[in-house]
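Input.
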Amino acid sequence: MSEINQQTKYPSVIKNTSGGVYERWRLIKDTLARYGVVVGGLGVIAAIVLIFFYLLYVVYPLFLPATAESVSQYEAPEPMLGKTVLLGMEEQNEVAARFTDTGQVIFFAAATGKTILTEAIKIPEGAKIVSFAQGSPIKEGAVIYGLSDGKVIIVKQKHKVTYPDNVRLITPSLSYPMGEAPLVIDETGAALEKIAVKIGDETSTIAAKSADTLKGTSKIRLSHFEKETSLFADDATVTRTDAILDYPASEVSDILIDKYENNLYLISSTGNLALFDISDKSTPVLIQKQNIVEAGHKITSVVFLNGDLSLMIGDSSGLVSQWSKVRDNLNRFEMQEIRVFKVSDKAVTSINPEQRRKGFMTVDADNTLGIYHSTSEREMIKEHVSDSSHPVAAAISPRANAALIQSDDGRISFWKINNEHPEVSFSSLWQEVWYESYPKPDYIWQSSSANNDFEPKYSLTPLVFGTLKAAFYSMLVAMPLALMGAIYTAYFMASNMRQIVKPSIELMGALPTVILGFLAGLWLAPTMENHLSGFFMLFILTPVGVMVFAYVWQYVPKNLLNKIPEGWEAALLIPVILLTGWFAFAVSVPLENLMFHGTMQDWFKSEFGIGYDQRNAMVVGIAMGFAVIPTIFSIAEDAVFSVPKHLTVGSLALGATPWQTMIKVVLLTASPGIFSAVMIGVGRAVGETMIVLMATGNTPVMDMSIFQGMRTLSANIAVEMPEAEVDSTHYRVLFLAALVLFLFTFIVNTLAEIIRQRLREKYSSL
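Output.
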């Protein structure tokens, strides 16, 4: 009783005490929420910054300069065995080889010059070596010696790797792929002044310039050997085909055969190039003859670039030009100069192509070492080797990370090279590049292939173009539908209907994009291909059907109008749109036959030259638009619905119509939110991956046609990242694409936020 009396006597004290506890607890929760929001926001900012710096960390090595370091110098091993005609190295950079003009091969330690093995080529008595040439250096290619009696000897170096006591041991040796007995090329016994060879698994081709001792003229002879193995016998027979080219050979200073043994190049020191088609070895055909250097200059070095699709030609003026076979307007092959490198002011004495990339090493008459990459058109390294001597031979290792240079003073320099990413430059990423076998410069993304002959094409331009194209068409579909729907739902629709429509549309945003991409690729794309005219009719007839319905609506009896709740009129449009859609597809085929005399795809192709791909930008626009609509609709609808009621009521009270109020008051006040909705939708479209990946041909083409596909940055990363070698150029360029996408969205969102703040400041006074 006493407690009850006290409560009755002092109710305000107890109330104040409980209220104070409640206020303190509320302040604690507010404080925790405030700090939680701050920590969460800072965490998001920190995560974004870390993502940016990680992308930068992976991409940064692409732009580091290449370096070359002289490791050692030593006297050429076994100098008494002859002058060097070729230097070579195996891929571990441990064992090097020196081929001499006397037919001796000296294997030695690349770093120290210590002799490992010396072998003599089995040259017949009475014959002398008069010419020498190297086959393809890839896979330990062969070398050929031309003799004074019209015969040749082909030798191939091998390196056997063993691991005794867990230590790598490389044992060099020589083999004779065409047999130890010399092959007769010129039956008259004339000396072979120039020689070339290509050795394959089943076929081999030799071309030689022989001196005709009787008439005092030279001839170009072609010998082809083909191995034929019977199904029922272990022995193989060799079929030989010989031919003499109808070409004045007196000025020929270099002979080259491509790896496919289909093309023969004859080059004179004065700059004349003759290209022969030797697909039929018995009847070579002259395709083209032209001059490839300026008047007064001489060719000093000629080699194939890796892949044997291009010739690298060095001249006496210090230029190295790249010539490649290109189809002309009549679809015929011709040699064209596709790029030029200014190497030096001195003559280029040696060009050594890399074996696994489209790079090459040069040495000029001033003993300057240069390393270049053809596709990126970059000068990677330029180092002076010596001031007191001139180069006589040079070699680059198979992995392009070491080089040997021998000078005329008999000394060999061993260099270590660090050149990891020569394929990347501003021009190769963003500008048109003239690639091998292409008729003209172009933007191409084609990152990998099955062999080392492939020329990587890392142009990001078609990927950026595809990203913007996909975003453009998706926003073209999504923006009108989402914004108009948001405005009508927030301002005109009845409250009860809005409670159904808004959650339903927002629920669309929960659909996984992989499901949308699956439906777009397997259902929408073929349906659109079969009923293309129906889709176009749908775009035309739907607005017409709605307008006709609106016109008829004003003549509906008022007793029927009164039965429809205010704000629910839009529900009546659902059957109208469905009926219009059915009618559009029903009349499309007859109308298509009547107007286009066939399919619409054929008409576009014949009249405008526009091709049609089943998975194209139109499919992406509809599918991605469907994915973007919920985001734009939800944010824009909230912005319109949040406009203070006193503004709209005041406008209506002053005599404005609902539409005038919407345009002059509501939209202006809600414009910051609407703009944010659009920009978030753009970001969503730019970053979309699965829909673009599954609903397009995923081809990196630059074509604005709505009937052509594309490849976006995000889809390209998703497709190629799992197959990219870690830390390779391909791997880092994919991260560069991610960095470009990151910076693009960051810049766009930053500008959007600036514009949104200005809109808010401008219309906040309403």
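Residues 367 and 385 are 6 Å apart (CA to CA).
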